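Ex. 9. Protein: Antibiotic biosynthesis monooxygenase.
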Amino acid sequence: MVTKALFVRLQAKPGREADVERFLRDGLSIVEQEPATTAWFAVRIGPSTFGIFDAFPDEAGRQAHLSGGVARALKEQASELFSEPPSIGEIDVLASKLPK
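Predicted structure tokens for Antibiotic biosynthesis monooxygenase:
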């Protein structure tokens, strides 16, 4: 069961959309190594707007993810890829349907 989540909104710099897409696709292999990341989705919201939604069983899992590899890479590459700092929202999951 997941109880905690994150929604991260990312705005690519003009001309860097393909780089952001590649960054997000490559992030999957890092997240697959995080046992407490129950679900992780990288999405394109618009032509230059992207997002990440991920869910965790508890606050400890969320905090582990926030100090993990994707978060580090996001901070390291933010100024070169994004036109504004990533917006990271901590949210509570009220209900979910996930594969067993």
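Check your answer against this statement. The first helix runs from residue 17 to 31.
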